[in-house]
Amino acid sequence: MLSFTIGGQLIEVEWFAASSGSAAGGTGLNGPAILLLDGADGLTFADGYRLAARTIAASGYHVAFLLYLDRTGDRRVAYSRLRQDYPLWAATVRDAVSWLASQPSVDSNRLGIVGVSLGAALAFETAASDLRIKAIVDYSGPLPEGYAMRQPRLPRTLILHGASDPVVPVSQAQAIERLLKELGTDYEVKIYSGQGHGFTGAAQFDSAARIASFLDQHLGPDQA
User: Fold this and answer.
1) Looking at CB atoms within 10 Å, which of 50, 61, 121, 194 has the fewest?
2) Four-residue CA torsion sign, 196, 180, 121, 79
3) Spatial distance between the Cα atoms of 7 and 144, rounded to a whole number of angstroms
4) For 151-199, what is each residue's pLDDT tens digit?
5) Three-state SS annotation for the chain
6) What is the per-residue pLDDT across 70-102, written as a single tens digit (0 to 9) for each?
7) Range of the domain at 208
8) Nearest alpha-carbon partner for 126 in 138, 4, 78, 59
9) What angle do CA 198, 203, 205 make, to 5 degrees?
10) First-residue to last-residue Cα distance in the chain
11) Exposure pattern of 189-205 as b/e (b: 16+ CB <10 Å)?
12) From the record, what ranges are coiled-coil (predicted)?
């Protein structure tokens, strides 16, 4: 377990080192790295996020599972405080990018964010002002409130969403796609028929394969 401090608050980071000898890391000492941002369920679904982190790490990426809810002392989001806490979490993620870029095993030119639900919104929030983020995987996430009106800068983005998502409606994925088109940003999108907020069965395996391919294309050895 690693950590850094922001606003006097200790933020823990679970570190999953890239598998040695994998293609994505290239031949240099430093390799690409991913911030993994959980959804509002936070640590109540920690084992699922850790499985995702290990899967990405096996493909050759250092993965930092950022426990950004530490900033507000929560294990999961308190919805009654979501609006007031959101800026604190966003600031925490911004500082986490700098922390990640400074790690001795990380190539600071190959940074990405995989965000789930609320974590995806925080990924978009961060990338709008941080050119170091070269790729985003948006897993069932919404656009931050008022985001499109800001005409933000966004990196290449992979959108994955369930057509029957009852938590974050698929209209959010469609809004993200429209924004990316307007910005002229390269993107990929896959809407899974019959899937909700999180994927099961064949969709789960397909999404994992798409994530691996997307990261290899934009953060892999050819981008070093």
Assistant:
1) 194
2) negative
3) 23
4) 888 999 999 999 999 999 999 999 999 999 999 999 999 999 999 999 9
5) CEEEEECCEEEEEEEECCCCCCHHHCCCCCEEEEEEECCCCHHHHHHHHHHHHHHHHHCCCEEEEECHHHHHCCCCCCHHHHHHHHHHHHHHHHHHHHHHHCCCCEEEEEEEEEEECHHHHHHHHHHCCCCCEEEEEEECCCCCCCCHHHCCCCCEEEEEEECCCCCCCHHHHHHHHHHHHHHCCCEEEEEECCCECECCCHHHHHHHHHHHHHHHHHHCHHHC
6) 999 999 999 999 999 999 999 999 999 999 999
7) 2-223
8) 138
9) 105
10) 27
11) beebeebebbbeeebee
12) none
Both tokens assigned to 58 = 């096996």
**Are 29 and 49 a contacting pair, CB within 8 Å?**
no
Q: Which amino acid is at 102?
A: S
Q: How far apart are CA 171 and CA 182, in angstroms?
A: 16
Q: What whole-number distance in Å separates Cα of residue 155 and Cα of residue 134? A: 5
24, 214 Cβ separation under 8 angstroms = no
CATH classification at residue 50 = 3.40.50.1820
**Size of the chain, expressed as the number of residues it contains:** 224
Whole-model pTM: value is 0.94
Q: Is 53 exposed, middle or buried (0-12, 13-18, 19+ CB in 10 A)?
A: buried
Strand order from edge to edge, sheet including 133-139? 2-6, 9-16, 62-66, 31-37, 106-116, 133-139, 156-162, 187-192
